[in-house]
Design brief:
Structural class: alpha/beta
Number of strands: 13
Bound molecules: pyridoxal-5'-phosphate
């Protein structure tokens, strides 16, 4: 596999040439990424030339609709699913609340749902509320020392055969450790349960093959995957057809409208095709052939991950070598994403503010993973410092971060 061409990558992101951001190194990517040029260009073009009601016969409208369809079709192909299985909603949190309402009607009192205390609240709170409908909510708990989820603990929760749904993260936005989604979805299937996987913290590090992972629902937020501010939701057809319609009654037969009652932002859907443009541009830059979309996505995923893993090693070495902080999640770069949280004597937000004075954009707080921090014995109000990067990060920026940490800590 070739090395990621980091100069080419950075040329695709206008933020790196933006005077307002000059001299700043961005380490809060888990909160939201920079947008790639194709997304910005498509969004601008839509607002300038297509900002009419889509799917009518007049030209601007027909083009608007075609661009929205293109986004759905091309993203679905990269994700290894069919176009009618991809839904665009306002955010992942909103998508999860709508899904939970659908499950409330589809499940019966006494059925059980498994949630974790590793998740961001978006893939936890909506499901926990189903207790109000008489459902049995079971918590799959992290190891309080490491923050890891042990599949053996899940197996115990599945033993009585009453679990119908398991909600868990591809990886946590604090722990960073990648859960073995394919193994977990297989366990769920054997137990007669469907799965809702929060991929928000994983997808920025390489689009997954959702088909191969076996998730019935896979959620991610495109404002963290170089795109516009939306929640993207894959709901596999077999499940989508079983869930009651959450949209207008006369749209019950329209797959793209059944689970997104808020109505989509047309411009952002159209601009989402820019994420596919970007993946394809990365592929074309690094490989001579033109294989199927899922192969292109998987190669680009591996390029991204290899670059990230290489840059993560010195940061983890540095943090692991300090005795005045608690590194959360694995100390090795393999099997984790470069979202690195540390607990310190000082509140996370305070240290992040000190880093800002050194040109480091980082975050502090609980990042909506309140239950996880409590399980780890960390006061959510005190919070953690989170340092998160992606494939467009330069190794010089990591070196600069380490220098700034040395000064601030
Ligand atoms: C892991 C994870 N899941 C879910 C969400 C919620 O996503 P959204 O902001 O699209 O509702 C976030 C947002 O930060 C997140 O980090």
């Amino acid at each position: 596999m070739p090395d990621l061409d980091i100069d080419f990558v950075r040329e695709q992101f206008p933020a790196f040439a933006e005077p307002d951001l000059a001299g700043q190194a961005f380490f809060e990517n888990a909160g939201g990424s920079y947008a790639c040029a194709p997304v910005i260009d498509r969004l601008t073009r839509f607002y300038r030339a297509r900002k009419v009601q889509p799917y009518a016969a007049y030209t601007a409208s027909a083009i608007a609709g075609a661009e929205m369809d293109e986004a759905r079709t091309r993203l679905a192909a990269l994700l290894g699913v069919d176009a009618d299985e991809v839904q665009f909603g306002p955010s992942t949190s909103q998508n999860a609340y709508v899904l939970a309402t659908a499950f409330r009607a589809a499940l019966a009192p006494g059925d059980a749902v498994v949630v974790t205390n590793q998740d961001h609240e978006a893939n936890s709170g909506p499901w926990r509320r189903l207790v109000e409908a008489g459902l049995d909510i079971r918590e799959w708990r992290v190891d309080p020392g490491t923050g890891a989820l042990d599949p053996a603990d899940l197996a115990a929760l599945l033993e009585d055969g009453r679990v119908r749904l398991i909600a868990f993260p591809h990886c946590s936005n604090i722990v960073g450790q990648v859960n073995d989604v394919a193994a977990l979805t297989a366990m769920a299937r054997d137990a007669g349960a469907v799965t809702c996987v929060d991929g928000v913290s994983y997808a920025p590090h390489g689009l997954p093959d959702v088909g191969a992972l076996g998730a019935d629902i896979y959620l991610f937020s495109s404002y963290k995957t170089y795109g516009p501010h939306q929640g993207v939701m894959v709901v596999r057809r077999a499940l989508a057809e079983r869930l009651p319609n959450q949209g207008h009654y006369f749209n019950a037969g329209v797959a793209s409208k059944r689970l997104t009652p808020a109505g989509p932002d047309h411009a952002q859907i159209a601009a989402s095709a820019g994420m596919a443009d970007y993946v394809d541009a990365l592929h074309a830059r690094h490989f001579a052939d033109d294989p199927a979309a899922s192969v292109r996505a998987s190669r680009v995923h591996d390029l991204q991950r290899a670059h990230e893993t290489r840059l993560l090693a010195p940061l983890l070495d540095y943090l692991g070598g300090r005795n005045d902080l608690r590194l959360i999640g694995p100390a090795q770069p393999e099997g984790r994403v470069p979202t690195v949280a540390v607990a310190l004597a000082r509140p996370g937000g305070e240290v992040a503010a000190a880093l800002a004075a050194h040109g480091i954009m980082a975050g502090g707080g609980h990042f909506y993973a309140v239950r996880l921090l409590e399980a780890l014995g960390i006061d959510p109000e005190h919070g953690v410092l989170r340092l998160s990067f992606v494939h467009y990060t330069h190794e010089d920026e990591v070196a600069r971060l380490i220098g700034a940490l040395d000064a601030v800590l």
